[in-house]
Amino acid sequence: MDRLEAMSVFAAIVDAGSLSAAGRQLGVPLPTVSRKLSELEAHLKTRLIARSTRKLVLTDAGRDYLAACRPILEQVEEAERAASGAYANVKGQLTIAAPIVFGRLHVVPLAAAFLELHPEVDIQLRLGDRNVNLIDEHVDLALRIGALPDSSLVATQVGLIRRVVCASPAYLARFGTPQVPGDLAQHRCISFDGLDAAAAWTFADQAGAKRQVAVHSRLTVSTADAAIAASILGLGLTRVLSYQVADALRDGRLVRVLAGDEPPAVPASLIYAGQGRLPMKSRAFIDFATVRLRKRLSSSSDAGSLGPAESEPVAPD
User: Fold this and answer.
1) Is 123 found in the same domain as 271?
2) Mean pLDDT of all residues belonging to the chain
3) Domain final residue pick, 59, 84, 109
C-alpha cells in the first residue's frame, strides 16, 4: 500500500463529502477509492469513517488521523512545487474562488487574458456566493467582498462596492421615485435573499448608523441576476451590489435611487494565504489582476477611486 496515496485519497473523501465525489475529483473509479480507504483502515487497524446511506462521519480516530495527514500532504505539495519551479516560473494550476456575478463579469475576462499571456498556467475558477476556506479547500486566491478582520491571510484591495437600490425608468414613471427609505413601504420591491431579508432592507443615516426599513417584496429570488432582470422588466425596486448592476445603470435600463441613504462602501479584495512563499503563478495573477480590477470597478459610477495597492491581514475563512 502506498501510504502517501492512501492519505491523499482519505483527505479527498473528507473534503468531497463522499467516496463517489472524491473519485470524480481524483479521476479514479469509485471501487478504487473504496478499496484504498479499506486498505488504509486495515493497515491502521481502526475505522476512520463511519459510513451510512446518507453521509460519511469521521470517527475520533479519523479526525486525529486527518489532522496529522494535512501537514504531511501540504509539505509534500510544497516540495513538489519547489522542485517543479513553481517559485521561479509562472506555471501550474491556479485555483481562484469568486462570487458568481463578480466572477462572470470581471474574473472570467481577466482569466482569459491571463491565460493568453501564460501558456503554462491552467486556471480552475470556482464561482459561488459562500466564503471558501482557502487552506482546507486548496484555493490559491479568492475575491472577497466585505470588511476583512486580522488573520494569517493577506488581502490586496481592488475596489469599493456599495449596496444600491434601483428601478427601471418605466416603473419610476408609473409609481414615482422614493425620496427617503420609508417611502419603500408604498412601493413594489424585489428582494435578493443573498443580500437582505425579504421583509427589510438595511440603510444608513448621515452618521453611518445602520437601520432596517420594512419593504413589501412582490418577488424574492435567489440570484442577483434574477433580481436585476425582474427590475429591468418594471416589476419593482431591487437592492443589489453596485458591480452587479453597473452595466444596467450605465445604459439607462435602471436608475439608482436613495443614493444618500446607502450604507458605507465595503472593500473588494484579492486574498491569499500568508504562510510560506507565494508561487509565481499567484503573484503574477495578483499583479495582473489588481490594476485591471481597480480600473474596471472605478469605471462604475459608484466604485470610488483607490490609491496605491494595499496588503493587509484578514480573518480566516
Assistant:
1) yes
2) 84
3) 84
